[in-house]
Amino acid sequence: MNKLTLLVGGVLIAGAAVFAYNLSQQPAGHSMEVPDTSSLSRGDPIAQVSVPATFSAPAQMGKVAFDVKCAACHGANATGLEGLAPPLVHKIYEPSHHGDEAFQRAVQYGVQAHHWRFGDMPPVAGLTRADVQGIVAYVRELQRENGIN
Known about the structure:
By secondary structure, the protein is mainly α. The protein has 5 helices and no strands.
């Protein structure tokens, strides 16, 4: 065997070992699994949400807009409502997975169902980008209070 063959073989074996090690370090299950809601009735809250003692000024304004435009489907304090819409206080909507712009796009264009089984979300009329920024501030503060960062 020549030196090049030994080098290539060694690199391949080392790469396979690193891959196998990393695979073994992954936690079991998916951290963003959708909860089993089969025991809930239509309209029941999906998530238990702790509410912060106080909200920032932007989040207070966002709560007003959320209550008017979003709560009918996503529930009071973004708990989600069985059969209607998912909870926004859920790891799926953490900032690293659904950034703030995802909320802007959802309001403007609607969303095809891809995590939950509620069907597509239609666009939401009557909200400005500033309104949605406030809603996002409100949701993010709820998320942080519930350990979602």
